[in-house]
Amino acid sequence: MDRKIETKHNVSDRSTSQKALRINLDEKKYGTIVEIGAGQEVARQFFLAGAAAGTIAKTMSAYDMKFSDAIYGVQEDRRYVSKARVRAMMEQEYELVVDRVGDVRSKSSRYFAYAATVAAKSFNRDNECHAWCGIRVQMYPGAEPSDIEVHVRMRDDNAEAQQQALGVLGVNLIYAAYFYYENPKKIIESLTDNMKANRIEIDSIDFQGPYFEDIDNRAINLHLIRSWKARAIMFKPDGSVGVPAEMLYKKNVLTIRGSFRPVTNLNVDMIEQGKKAFYNLEGVDEENTLAIAEISLNDAHGHDNNVPEADLVQRIQLLNSLGYNVMISDYTRYFSLRAYFRQYTKLQIGIVVGMINVRQIFNEDSYRGVEGGILEGFGKLFPDNTRLFVYPELNDIGEVSDFTDVKVQDHLRFLYRHLLENGFISGIECSDKDLFRIYSREVLKKISGGRGEWESALPDKVVNEIIENKFFGYRG
């Protein structure tokens, strides 16, 4: 069953004010809090807790763009709510606090700079409500600082509630940086402490610096899904974690779901043939399209397969080596996947599927728990600018069978015909009939035995990555 964003770990053993007070009462922790765009809610929490003079060197909020640019410079993308801007804020404020008080405070001091740049709900505007928040923190006296940066989407429908949520988040982040730094997963889990479910979504977190140098940011971001902070995490071809709103903005989206364990020549042909068909649509081309290989954490019944994060990272890296964007999600049904993309783009959405997926989509058992059953499911899958591109298969007598040969139950035949005749479902070709003889499971079994015929079933770049990194138990 698909789920909403929940907050499993939203009850802390300390309230927000208790967290703030614990930091305030520790004379070794000292720093700056700067917030742009949603009041000064984080600083306010520390002042309300009491004894803040022992913790806060300065608070600031530079709303005017001219003032903000004069203080933090102009970033290359010229955006104010961005990772580059929050990083510039952290860097500058951290250097200032160390330069100005480092010689007069106790040598046991551990300095920090918290920064947030926010686009909260605007009056009478339907704007994207999101924030970049981060902390640059010294883990022990005299150490080089380390950074934690998070991207947050606010789901409250008014600015006051969004500000309050960000105030709680900020205290949680500062507290976690000091008290949970040895356990990055606990840092993630604690970010929504003392906050009701569904108020925020955290779709990106980045750990940098000497104290976090052993962290694989790809793996740790997957914990955002499993700790119910996000429904999906996206990765760019260079392996970096992407922000969905930025990657999908004004883009046509073509996606293919698979296990990709490992990605084979058959998988690649499905993606590339899907691209060809998708680019034939009016207004769709390579420049304005984002192609995404998607992996669901769930089985067909909506239960987590409990795949280790290291295994998922291997698949991400192999897909990235071929230049593909990757998305890991906890979505089970295709209509939920489509709804996720529709949050960010109004343009065309294409979903590449195999014949087996079409049969699953037309299986009424797949819609248990959906009030309107299969009709509600189809209503959510095909409401606007969404199409399925169906890759063929070999039938029992070794002939190519395409989307027109799909057999559905008698009472669904007219529904299937309606979708075909109106272009919601169309076929794509296979470039080589021999590709049908590639089975990922068989390839996977052979990899552990070292080099061999399995290599011909995979792209050369994928083979090289597997051998070089000893993925999937490869023993050379």
Please identify the structural class as seen in this structure. alpha/beta
Number of continuous helical runs: 16
Give the biggest beta sheet: 8 strands, mixed
Q: What's the pLDDT, averaged over the residues?
A: 93
- The spatial strand order of the largest sheet comes to 8-7-11-10-9-12-13-16
What is the CA-CA span between the terminal residues?
42 Å
Any low-confidence stretches, pLDDT <50, length ≥5?
none
Task: Indicate the proportion of strand residues.
Answer: 15-25%
How many E-type strands? 16
Oligomer: single chain
| Helical amount | 25-40%
What is the gist of this entry?
With about 475 residues, the chain is of the alpha/beta class. The protein contains 16 helices and 16 strands.
Note down, in words, how this protein is organized.
Helix content is 35%, strand content 20%. The protein is an alpha/beta fold. The strands form three sheets. Strands 8-7-11-10-9-12-13-16 form an eight-stranded mixed beta sheet, sandwiched between helices. β7 (232-235) and β8 form a beta hairpin.
